Amino acid sequence: MTVGLGGTILTSSDGITWTERTSGVSNFFNGITYGNGLFVTVGQLGIILTSPDGITWTERTSGTSEHHNGVTFGNGLFVTVSSKSTFKFPLTEVIILTSSDGISWTERTSGTYRHLHGITYGNGTFVTVGFSGTILTSSDGISWTERTSGTSNHLYGGVTYGNGLFVTVGGGTILTSSDGISWTARTSGTSNNLNGVTYSQ
Asked: What are phi and psi of 133, to 5 degrees?
């Protein structure tokens, strides 16, 4: 399944033939995950949709108009992270939402005003990354701790977990961590923006 601009949702059973589904909204989607028998997609202006089959979608109330930039599922919990839809002073914290069922969402304290642009779950830990090298971790999705990334580069390429390792990327930057707490810079060989990262066995 893939999501994108203008409320676009496409599904495929084989990765070859794709079918467009009706989302019912025109918002941009920025992330999608699956867990507990439910697809959850999030995006622009606080939009959250859920579906049990990827075909029929229902809009849920997020309680915010901030842009959701990523969503993951782990330890029985959906977690979505955001950036500010408008810049207002004084700066306020960006929003993290959690939900056990994908329907009812609760706002959590992020402790940062920097945009968050990706989230993953692995090894009992949620990890989210964002602007200016921001990395936050949480064991429960509720209480978050900022970690030292060692870079001021934007980590807008997201974060993934696989083979016992967290990996995040951004503006020519690659960082790795075995626990989400201590991070090591790796040589990317490029100064170009890195916009995505994944792992496959």
From this structure: 75, 15
